[in-house]
Design a protein that fits this description.
101 residues; mainly beta; Jelly Rolls; five-stranded antiparallel β-sheet; four-stranded antiparallel β-sheet; 50% strand
């Protein structure tokens, strides 16, 4: 797993984040999660790349919990068990893409 924390004061817009994914050859999809949504532990046969646009997302990878905020990006390798849960009272918007080799 690779985590990239956004360090700049200004977080990119959703359109700018989409362009970042497209430059990497990925097809970004915007996903919106309501407060207190939890996606149970699962795995898939492709790498998952996700970047938080707004809100916060708690990602649990094999027992290691990581809190992602706006601008943070995570690369989850294929066949890695993981679950996600929104944190806080607001919705969480993120961009997600499959990375197939």
């Amino acid at each position: 797993m690779i985590i990239t924390r956004w360090q700049a004061q200004v977080v990119p817009s959703i359109d700018q984040m989409k362009m970042m994914f497209e430059v990497e050859g990925l097809e970004p999809q915007v996903e919106t999660y309501n407060p207190e949504i939890e996606i149970a532990e699962h795995r898939h046969p492709f790498d998952e790349v996700r970047m938080v646009c707004s809100g916060t997302l708690l990602v649990n990878i094999d027992g290691t919990k990581l809190l992602l905020r706006a601008g943070d990006k995570i690369h989850i390798p294929s066949n890695t068990k993981h679950s996600t849960k929104t944190e806080g009272d607001g919705t969480c918007v993120s961009i997600c893409a499959k990375k197939i080799f």
